Sequence to fold (220 residues):
Amino acid sequence: MSTSTLAPSMSHRHRHGIRTVIAAVVVLILIAAMALSTKVVKIGSSADTQVQSFDPAAYGAKQFPKTQAAIEKRAVDATTLAAAIAKDQDAAGKQYGVASGGVGPEMSVKFTGVVGADDGGVYTVKVPGVPDSLVVRVQTGPAINGTDLRDSTGTISFEQFTNQIDYQNAGYAINAAMKKAVLSKVDTSKLTGKTISVVGVFQLINPNGWLVTPATLEVK
Fold:
């Protein structure tokens, strides 16, 4: 067999060997990268707690008392708030509200009034001292909609949660905790004609229409 016949075969084996070595090196590099990026989490440690799934019920039960206290502290009498909004809505929002990242600030308010018509668990309330053009409504369930309680303090933000679903569920969980702590003690099916005192929060969008989510609600 001539040298010219052997040369191509040897060259082919040489190239194959080089490719094998390169492939092995690439695999080793990937294994090393995976090892460096792997974090060992001890069960029961703080890191382990962080990666556990979000528990809305536990979060709501823990957070609502804090939210309730913050709303009670910030709450402005409805007559004062209505006058300020009528004079300058933007200025009133800055003075009394909490920026929510939405279309309007969250306003904490307190009032006593006579309950009017029920519309699917949302009652109108006639509040003395506010203009007749202002319609005040309070939602009592069974469904408590929106994230006004979550957004009322300005201390709860998306960055505190793993994802958007957990952030949204946090709002629902605070609403549920409020229902259990506040509304479960009231016969919300028979409020028409009664006098109630409310401390709650609403998003200032329409100056002549407040949809209040209660933090406290007492039947007189």
Remarks:
- The chain has one domain: 57-219.
- Residues 57-219 form a domain with the OB fold (Dihydrolipoamide Acetyltransferase, E2P) fold (CATH 2.40.50.420).
